[in-house]
Amino acid sequence: MDWLLFLLFLLVGYLLGSIPTGLILGRWLKNIDVRQFGSGKTGATNTLRTLGWKISLSVFLIDALKGGIAVWLPVLYFTDAPDNWLPWVRMLAAFACMLGHDFPIWIGFKGGRGVAVGVGELLVVSPFIWILTFFVTFPTIVITRYVSLGSIVGSVFTVVFTVVAIFAINLDPRYLGFSIVSALLVIVMHRDNITRLLNGTERKLGDKASKVKPSSEQNPTH
């Protein structure tokens, strides 16, 4: 295996993830820094509450594209054979992309929560799992109006559906490792949301984001 190429894929994945789409579009289109509102995150959900659904949808699609590219690029070099490195490279590149999104080097390592990136990665790796996960995540968000709850539930069921895919469509079992690690990362990145869900103070879909007070801009909790 070409280790330099392997490391290059990880670096590309991280740098792709580090592109702060919500921050860029917010400043470009509205001259607004989304980090100064709501949760202070740069992802699609906080963008929705700050800038509206049109820009939020663009952020979501671009972030998903970042993840999709990160797991697609290794296919250009590695073959998908049982004894090949492709699953490992794709998993690590995908995880690197999620880390880049959550902890972007360009803006002080404070980004989003990695959900949209994971959606794009999952769609490229296994449309079968993506479809099953969608039909769990989307109803959860619609019924409860909690995007965070839908994201957490979807990440957990991704692990379940990966096990299903291993037996149903002969998915390489090594992808189970990525589904577990990515689910754990999503849950960890939603730990403040989990606290608010338990306290009954979590924002629902459609709620507007309030501006972060100057004294708490470095550690927003709304």
TrEMBL record:
Organism in which the protein naturally occurs: Candidatus Chlorohelix allophototropha
Superkingdom, natural source: Bacteria
Top-level enzyme category: transferase
A GO CC term attached to the entry: plasma membrane
Protein known as: Glycerol-3-phosphate acyltransferase
Membrane topology: Multi-pass membrane protein
Transmembrane segments: 55-79, 91-109, 115-137, 149-169
Task of the protein: Catalyzes the transfer of an acyl group from acyl-phosphate (acyl-PO(4)) to glycerol-3-phosphate (G3P) to form lysophosphatidic acid (LPA). This enzyme utilizes acyl-phosphate as fatty acyl donor, but not acyl-CoA or acyl-ACP.
Main localization, broad class: membrane
